[in-house]
Design goal:
alpha+beta, Cytidine Deaminase, domain 2, 4 helices, 5 strands, globular
């Protein structure tokens, strides 16, 4: 699956987000080392700390399906260009990055932008 397809999957699943408080829907699609993809969207809670981001939702789905290594994640929000992961999501992504690394794919006015997780989270906490 190419990065354009990952972004399209993230865009599609963002429509399922439950964001009644922030009005900020987000979708994510992870590409596992196996080649399979998994999607997730954010879902909020009145107790804000219980909110789950799209990226962690997608990673959790991958983990629940036996995956342990992620090669890439595409993130999309209709409300923001270059919607990069929050700090908690960066740490979770770093935990499961593949041996080759992990690309973070976002959509901008000028097209797709790719960062590595190591660029977004230098010196992340990984054992």
């Amino acid at each position: 699956m190419n990065y354009e397809e990952l972004i399209k999957s993230a865009e599609e699943v963002s429509k399922c987000a439950y964001a009644p408080y922030s009005k900020f829907p987000v979708g994510a699609c992870v590409l596992a080392q196996s080649g399979k993809t998994y999607t997730g969207c954010n879902f909020e809670n009145a107790s804000y700390g219980l909110t789950i981001c799209a990226e962690r939702n997608a990673v959790g789905t991958a983990i629940a399906n036996g995956e342990r290594k992620i090669r890439a994640v595409a993130i999309y929000s209709p409300n923001m260009q270059n919607c990069t992961p929050c700090g908690a999501c960066r740490q979770v992504l770093a935990e499961f990055k593949s041996d080759e690394g992990l690309d973070v794919i976002t959509l901008c006015n000028d097209g797709i932008r790719v960062h590595t997780i190591d660029e977004l989270l230098p010196e992340g906490f990984v054992l």
